[in-house]
Amino acid sequence: MALLYLSQILVMPPASAAETAGCFRSTCTGKNPVTMGCDADAQVLEQINQGNDIELKLVFSPACGATWTKVSVNPLYKYPVWAALWQMPTLGGFESPRPTPSITSTNASDVSPMGDWKNTSKACWNGLKDAWDPEPLLYEEGGRVVVTPLVNGDCTEWI
Fold this sequence. Notes:
The protein is mostly beta strands.
């Protein structure tokens, strides 16, 4: 009897990432990719590094239809780092962030909440504050829109 049960286990295919994912597209928005099982089939769309100190990835899960940011900081790096998934509707609109908490040497890695892959996305890090885009397309200052230079941080390309 035990041999029959074992043979059934051995021939059953493993569950696919789509079967284990806890959400899909807009239902993933704002949720953690690890707890929702979306990291099982994660693919890195783009990665940028700040020397050996900061590694930032824009990540995509086909099973969940979601994107998010993963940031890792060298434990010897002594400054706080914030990262965020920035998204805007593909047909235009305003940027909105899904930030991580502050990353320091005591918690050297984290992920942002997810967003729907149907939106245009980029991953950014900065050393200034939560939900700050170091490379916005436009920035309003004193009632007028100006293009800002890159200051204290970096972003992947919009995808």
